[in-house]
Amino acid sequence: MRARHRTGLLFWWFGAFAFLVPGAFDFGPVHEAEYYRWQFAASFGLAAALGMAAVTATLHWAGDPELSFTHQDRRFRLEGRTLLLAWLGVLLLFWANTRPGRDFIRLLPERLRKEGGATQVARLGLTERDWLIRHGQVLRFGPGDFEASQWLKANCQPNQRVLVNFNEGDVWAIHFESALAAQTGLWCVGHALPLDNDAIGLPPFRMQPEARALLADPTLGRCLGLNLDWLYLRFGGDAEQALDRFSRVPGLHKTYQGNPDSQGITRVIYRVDPAGES
User: Fold this and answer.
1) By CB neighbour count within 10 A (0-12 exposed, 13-18 middle, 19+ buried), where does 233 fall?
2) What is the spatial distance between Cα 244 and Cα 270, in angstroms, rounded to a whole number?
3) Could you give the C-alpha distances from 245 to 231, 252, 270, in angstroms and in order?
4) Do 156 and 216 fall within a single domain?
């Protein structure tokens, strides 16, 4: 304000306005995504205003109203106290940008010890199987799912449709279907939009009534109603009773069954035959 810098003042007002907007408006339970947008806008405006204020104060302290430089052999030269400030700024920027790398190198010996050597560390994240399994807590995608998806990838056609018995109680169960679709190229179907009383911003993790009825009482007609080509089922505990219900349906052919994993989950894949041949 004292310097009557209109651009800096505009940035300051923009940042202050963006900072106060979330306090004046209720955006609802959207996992804070909308609030992050306004926080970014506020940080952008206030950072720009702070940068202009810092430059103004630096030039005032240096006793030079403008940055002056001379051109000699295609090199610019800062003179006076601004030269010292420029070098300090370069060193600070270098230190800030190299800190993540320094932290990585500092923690590397401990990481080598935990991961079992340099060879294992070099392989981290380089294969899709390793990446999917290491993110299994988020993707709900285990080693058994990778094996089943690879079999399905080798035996399916692009753009065919698959129904997964996902858990409606898990909002982020859709992450598993995203990984399955990326691995196989299949369309995951059976989803419904959130209910009216669901929080805004939730993914479509609800199941269609037709899909819920199919999983509870499987029939070929319900499979054809959803235009299904495949069923990808995951059963926990004793899966024999559930498998018996699907295996008795004409037109459903069990084409893959994996071994139970450490959590007792069995992956089973059925092929839907519209002709209904057993």
Assistant:
1) buried
2) 12
3) 13, 10, 12
4) yes
Record the pTM: 0.58
Residue 42 has pLDDT above 60, yes or no: yes
Rounded CA separation 263/261 (Å) = 5
Q: Rounded to an integer, what distance in angstroms lies between the CA atom of residue 122 and that of residue 118?
A: 6
How high does pLDDT run on average in the chain? 79
Residue 200 is assigned to a structural domain of this protein = yes
Radius of gyration (Cα) for the chain, nearest Å? 30
pLDDT in tens, 106-125: 887 776 666 555 555 555 54
Q: Do 234 and 144 fall into the same domain?
A: yes
**Burial of 179 by CB count in 10 Å (0-12 exposed, 13-18 middle, 19+ buried)?**
buried
Query: What is the distance between the alpha carbons of residues 237 and 240, in angstroms, rounded to a whole number?
Result: 9
Token pair 């630096």: residue = 58
Same structural domain for residues 244 and 165?
yes
Number of domains in the chain: 2
Largest CA distance in the chain: 91
Q: The domain spanning residue 181 has which CATH number? A: 3.40.50
